Amino acid sequence: MKYWRKPLDADSKRAPHGCVHVILERCKGCGFCITYCPRHVLESSPEFNRKGYHPPIEIHPELCVDCKLCEAICPEFAIWNTPVKETTSEEVTHSGK
Amino acid sequence: MGSSGTAVLTGAHYLDGDYACAEGAIAAGCRIFAGYPITPSTEIAERIAKRFPTVGGTFIQMEDELASMAAVLGAVWGGAKAMTVTSGPGFSLMQENIGLGMMTETPCVVVDVQRGGPSTGLPTLTGQQDMMQARWGSHGDYEVIALSPSSPQECFDLTITCFNLAEKYRLPVLFMMDECVGHMTEKVVIPEPGRIDVWPRRWYRGPKEEYRPYLPDKDGVPPMVKAGEDYRFHVTGLTHDERGYPVINAECQKRCVTRLSTKIRENADDIMIIEEDEFVRNGSADVVVVAYGISARVATKAIDEARARGVKVGLLRLITVWPFPEKKIHDLAGKVKCLVMPEINLGQMYREMQRAAEGRCKTALVPHCGGWVHDPSDILAAIMENSK
Amino acid sequence: MSTPVTVAPNQSAHHPLDEFLRTDRIPHIWCPTCGLGTVLNSFLTAIKDSGIPRQDIAVVSGIGCTGRTAGYVWLDSFHTTHGRALPFATGLKVANPKLKIVVISGDGDLVAIGGNHLIHAARRNMDMTVICVNNFNYAMTGGQFGPTTPRKAKLTTAPYGSYEHPFNLPFLVESCGATYVARWTALHVRQVQTSFREALHHRGFSFVEVISPCPTVYGRRNQLGSGLDISMYYRDNSVVKHNADTRECDIRYQESIIVGRFVQKEKPTYLDTMNEYLTETLGSKYTPYQGPMSDGD
What we know:
The complex is a heterotrimer of chains A (97), B (388) and C (297).
Chain A lengths: L13 E9 L9 H5 L5 E3 L11 E3 L10 H5 L5 E10 H7 L2
Chain B lengths: L10 E6 H11 L4 E4 L6 H14 L2 E4 L3 H13 L4 E5 L1 H17 L3 E9 L5 E5 L4 H6 L9 E2 L4 H18 L2 E7 H4 L2 E6 L43 E3 L13 H16 L2 H4 L2 E3 L1 H4 L5 E5 L2 H15 L4 E6 L1 E3 L3 H8 L4 E5 L6 H9 L4 E5 L9 H10 L3
Parallel strand pairs in B: 2-3, 2-4, 4-5, 5-8, 7-8, 12-13, 12-15, 15-16
Antiparallel strand pairs in B: 1-9, 5-6, 7-14, 11-13
Helix pairs in contact in B: 1-2, 1-6, 3-4, 11-14, 12-13
Chain C lengths: L35 H15 L6 E5 L7 H4 L3 E4 L5 H11 L4 E7 H7 L1 H9 L4 E7 L2 E2 L5 E2 L23 H8 L3 E6 L3 H13 L3 E7 L3 H7 L5 H10 L1 E3 L16 E8 L5 H13 L15
Parallel strand pairs in C: 1-2, 1-3, 3-4, 4-8, 7-8, 9-10
Antiparallel strand pairs in C: 5-6, 7-10
């Protein structure tokens, strides 16, 4: 995200950061989480689970902001977020799209 | 176990069968009624609509019979005793959910005040034409308990028995009244609440985490719970295992469905209620009239006349019509010349009687298409002809 | 190529909603990319966030793909006969008015065979929440058309395309007396969660229609792609219009869909009116229903 100037509270405001958990055997490879993640954190794994589906993997774990959209959208209850340390908004600015 | 206090109208009354049935339900502790008006059962619903708000019951008139039966099942799982009433056409509509009640083992009472059929038939006139439908009405294999009253007094007493049997064996019990008994007005004596035997529901009392909705007790019947107590149980009409989870295979079908039949068959002797006169009891009868409902009363006139003419004839009155008292009939068939069955249909329970007799004696049917009761002289003719 | 994903091992994996799921029956039977799993996810999130004690919630469903929902929620749940979930729920409610009853069923179950019960439950303003998952066909039986199938859609019993006029569900239930009516697509997850929560807390007949992708039958028979394609289509063609006039909320085949919260009003429920009226007419003679039997009865 591009700012026209550095926000006054850039040092004090923290963007949330999250990490993704996946229960591999529950995934049915629907692709909802991969398509709808607003930060494009996920991609389909080259590995597959017992049923032959390709679960998601994090390709940009640093971009996850714990928004829980993947958790809300997954039909299989296979993916969820937990919060990790917060990053500063500057760090998010530099690495985000 | 006594029944609840002020709801019971202790005393002697002059009531018709329908009203007596309503009072029986109230005395048995029924407090939810969901129904749809249909002649000749409407009076039961009307009496309940009037009485329930004063005795702590909820009456709800549903949009059709399908909804009525579904609502009754829901009310039972909500923790109440519930009942519905209907006649032939409505009974047909209720079959699917009666089947659901059988599969989910939901205790409740369904009253069918029979009238002439098939289809719309004779809405205001009597019949006994739904007897086989009571047994086989819904699809699939299951056993039923069905009772048949012969008087308004029995309409009161046997409604309570229906509720008791429903709770003990966990199924919808069918009360097969007929229009004649339903609309007949006679003396009905209602005892004090403490003298009315009302059986409690078979509640589960073990630890919550060990509860299995369909794990039976020794008599083949599982105890039940109600919604709202954090048991978090699942009930389904699909073939299910003891956890209540659907399991779609032949093995589970065998375990699940066989028990629905065996819990009744193995307890058939306990469930059976019959009335036999001394000719039947002491084995001296040459002819026995086997009858139920209003036909049994009509038969007594023919029997008296036959006895006056010297025939040794007895009466076996079926009060529980299902399960059919096969052993009783089989034994009796070995001792008599003929079993005569008058019924207001073209031969329904007669087939059961024939089957149970296994050719050990003659059997005779006195059919009647419906619309009125038998002429006693027809029954008399059958007795006389078969007494030689 | 990528940082290894944090994966919780199967044995100790606990999705935040596992406390409301019968995890011994997961994975569920619904197809990959079916919207039902997402609807269930939204529902469980809504009940978790609603603050309603879990023992007070009972789920009733009918027959069909959506009807299987009752088997997956770890609450008192009832899987009843086709079309009869609503009257069963009515009986359950009058027997125990404290219960919060949620009927989750599909378009065929609630609106075709169950249509009569839908209109009467709405008319009575029975206090319950109805979640109607609309995938425009009878999916479980292989994809037959139903009363919500848009004209021209092809299905097995409409092999040349359906020529029947479909129902406009928000209009139908509003006209019958429903007091909370909303429609979303399955992928409007946040809005669906909010609507479910509002519907749960609403006193009266709440109806939430959730348009859901059915890739295996409706999608395949009309060559609409996977559930992901269909749901993206629904998302891209949804128009949010809160308080829209429900008369204008028809759904035409592959055209835009109006979503939003259409009706939210207060009206006495069935049991409210029953109690008030009988108190007024019978006075002290009125003895209200005392609730379900205790274990001693």
